[in-house]
Amino acid sequence: MSGKRAADDLNLPTKRPRKQDDEEYGELREEDYMSDPAADAALIPRAATINFSALTRKLAETRRSTTDVEGTSSLDAHRRQQDNLVSHIFMDQDFSWLHLKPDHASRPIWISPEDGHIILEAFSPIAEQAQDFLVAISEPVSRPAFIHEYKLTSYSLYAAVSVGLQTEDIIEVLNRLSKVPVPESIIGFIRERTLSYGKVKLVLKHNKYFVESSHPETLQLLLKDRTIRDARVVSQTADNSIKAATFTTAKAPVKGNLIIPGTKEAEKKKDEVPNGRPGAPAAGNADADLFTSVVGVDNDEIDEDDDNVHAFEISDGKIDDVKKRCNELEYPMLEEYDFRNDTINANLDIDLKPATVIRPYQETSLSKMFGNGRARSGIIVLPCGAGKTLVGITAACTIKKSCLVLCTSSVSVMQWKQQFMQWSNVTDRQIAVFTAESKERFAGESGIVVSTYSMVANTHNRSHESKKMMEFLTSREWGFILLDEVHVVPAAMFRRVVTTIKAHSKLGLTATLVREDDKIADLNYMIGPKLYEANWMDLAAKGHIANVQCAEVWCPMTPEFYREYLREQSRKRMLLYCMNPKKFQACQFLIKFHEDRGDKIIVFSDNVFALEAYAKKLGKPYIHGGTGQVERMRVLQWFQHDSNVNTIFLSKVGDTSIDLPEATCLIQISSHFGSRRQEAQRLGRILRAKRRNDEGFNAFFYSLVSKDTQEMFYSTKRQQFLIDQGYAFKVITHLDGLENLPDLVYRTKDEQIELISSVLLANESEADLGSDIRATEGDLAGTVTSKDFGQMKFPGAQRTTGTLTALSGAQHMSYVEQNKSANKKLARDAAPSRHKLFSRREKDKASARKEARTSGRG
Ligand SMILES: Nc1ncnc2c1ncn2[C@@H]1O[C@H](COP(=O)(O)OP(=O)(O)OP(=O)(O)O)[C@@H](O)[C@H]1O
Does the keyword section mention Transmembrane helix (predicted)? Predict the structure, then answer.
């Protein structure tokens, strides 16, 4: 086994490119800002380069030379000799020079001096506390059952400082947890990165934005940057120096006495908790004390000399550029809202209903936001179905100021409003919705508005009413802006929202902080750092979300389908692997198997052609972008309440926003390439399963994949996020008993050829996902109209001439027309049965039609 291979197997971090290693570590120097325009750009890579490797090598060399000079005992010499015998196997991944501490077995982490990766033994007795700490200071990379991997990054340390952790505390706790002394390179990195963090704040006062700091030299340094300087608003009356802009802010509140409604603390209001730290473990020993002091809420560190705060104003429109630039210069701006001392904006009289009790992880996430008595802006990451909505509502009830909620679709808008009414005592008059259909305002001085991103961000073709509503939204200060599903919103749209709406604090909610376009870092400066990220497996173990068994079912392609697959071009290829008869059969078998167990099943297909074909063939109802609202509701109601409807087919319109706690099994027959986020969101549909707390209950997630096709590659890619959350995908290559299924579809060659002909005759666009994607994007735009649906292309309407010579089974062309809509069929079945005479006549009509067609072709 080569050294590299061994390192891979041990899950060691991969080596960074040598070129980067050799770069000199650079510091910000004043002259860099002065006059050279190129300096602005040049600064970033120099400041941002983490040169762990160079430092590490230097340290190792120093260590070796000092040992040689000082001389060693024969035992040490023997050990070194032993080390050298194996060192070559690991080459530059040999970290044996980081000597293990004598009690290393009871310490759960190891830190790579190379690149800041942290490996945690999740089976250690103190793993839970260690996890809390690691989530606060680093990014979780992968968290399967026994070994977790985290990574220290600039962003994660920024987040750590924002929730109040101190540099030396971070180093000390790492040292306590680590099996080896924390490498100097890591200590240096933490010190260096956190040095400047937390020094600058962005504050909204009297509808104007200020960059604020109690360190005037920092503001002076920032003003040397061209972007920031250009964004500064120099008032004509008085702005001679930064100091001239000094103003006094209200004294910070007494720290730590904030009670978040719905928490245990709120219930025990009377027995006051010192430091007000929700969920803090009782201090038992020294380690626990240390955790208590650094993990979770801390209280005193952000106390500032408020009388000595310096600030300069920046223009609203450039806020985003300034934030970005400050991030790049390693002075990320903290955004905190001292809502209890805000006497300018009217209070909103809302509270959680007395019966509402928030769960421990919801409480923990909120404690990160409100830890120092103010509202920190940032992002909370909770698994799908874990109750992000209630976290947002509790935050709004804590801040008690006007609140704007933005979500991705008008369905979500209605759900948010309904949830606000369900969990809090907000009245109908206090909460308004702003969508294409409804433009309401709340009564009184303060209230809640729920809308979609695109309603707020789109500037084109606004109706008069929309314009007036936008004026209402932009002319006032909002105490709080809640951003749902932050990871899906296009960056440009986000930017417009964040710059046009003036809000004191922002909370982003998401389940999957992954984006295929790698734009996730943008969220850091647009909203704020990640405040909390829950562990999916932990929540499943505690029954807050369901346990899920994941499986990938490999369906071999029939020879005919595979031949066409190899011959066809990309778009049709996709249709061929979706419509593979073996996949059809596997789907039919799994539906039957799970229906017999009493499960409720959702079958997902991104491809509308396949969706309709499967649903019709198997006689199940379906919903896609083109299904009208009334029919959607009808199908969903059947699924929820009718024991005869246990399976529905959904296109990507069901990925999010559909709350069906009845569903216990998912089958995915076609998916959109390699989207990790979509896979996780789909899984989320069954994580909220009603029956999740039944003993031994498991939900099931099957991904059907046509063997030896591109689909296998995409499938592996899609699963990566869930694997990193600790889910294990089993591979099923054979479904026992499938052949014996009575009325198995596409059993004969003739039927399979009939199917292939329909696929080959299908329009190229049927293979596209475009039509349905448009429906969801339309939703994101908040303006899905019947016009949109009218423009969509759906299968069955058009057929182009196919390569008939290639089709040995052209006589079966009538396939598509024979299958009536399964939805209509179900409605018919529900209606009183028809007289025999009519059904007879219909049959006759159908066979006459068929005959006419066959003779026409002949
Ligand atoms: N503290 C709580 N007590 C009782 N029920 C809760 C609590 N928190 C959440 N729930 C319930 O859990 C379910 C899922 O909540 P919610 O829809 O907010 O999840 P989500 O995290 O937004 O999921 P997704 O990302 O899939 O939209 C809802 O039915 C909600 O009522």
Answer: no
